[in-house]
Amino acid sequence: MPALSPQDALHGEALSPHRENEMAQPEHLAESDLLGLRLVKKISGERIREERRRRGIKQGELADEMGVSLRWLREIEAGNPGAKLDDHLNGTIRLGLSAGHIVLPILFMAQRMPVPQTLLHTDLRPLERACVDLVADAAIKSVTAELRPSWWSED
Fold first, then answer.
1. CB atoms within 10 A of CB 113
2. Helix crossing, 26-54 with 100-110: angle to 10°?
3. What is the pLDDT of residue 97?
4. pLDDT score at 6
5. Nearest-CA neighbor of 100 among 129, 78, 73, 139?
6. What is the rounded distance in angstroms from the CA atom of residue 20 to the CA atom of residue 16?
7. pLDDT of residue 118
């Protein structure tokens, strides 16, 4: 099976789920993952900048709130690939934006699945909430099962 190319990663190509035991060449997979992360950072920076401007917040004010320098906030908003994802999450959360455009593409990449482009450009709050509820429900069921004595009956 051919390795993922950076272009394939951006255009939604992924490893076949039927060939999950086959591995792509590590250097190509890492390169495509980096390209995907760069795109996430670019779009995240744009969303942060747009929301900051929409609210009339100056860069210096947001930078202070985030605990970063003005220059670094400019790098984040410009989509600098060297910016850390936690910096993007920091700005996103402080502005009350959906974090799904950062988190969900990473989950898709980790599963070697194509990233739907709408995840990068859509307000994903309802989907985020559904995911959180699903995880919380599973955690509650797991804890309940662990704590339930073997003699307990649900009749």
1. 14
2. 170
3. 93
4. 38
5. 129
6. 7
7. 82
Weakly modelled stretches of the chain, pLDDT under 70: 1-34, 153-155
* CA torsion angle 129 134 135 136 (round to 10): 80
H helix runs in the chain, sequence order = 6-10, 26-54, 59-66, 70-77, 85-94, 100-110, 118-121, 125-147
* Distance of alpha carbon 131 from the chain centroid: 13
Are 106 and 40 contacting, i.e. CB atoms less than 8 angstroms apart? yes
Angle, helix 26-54 to helix 59-66, in steps of 10 degrees: 120
Report how far residue 30's alpha carbon sits from residue 88's, in angstroms, rounded to the nearest whole number: 21
d(CA 36, CA 122): 17
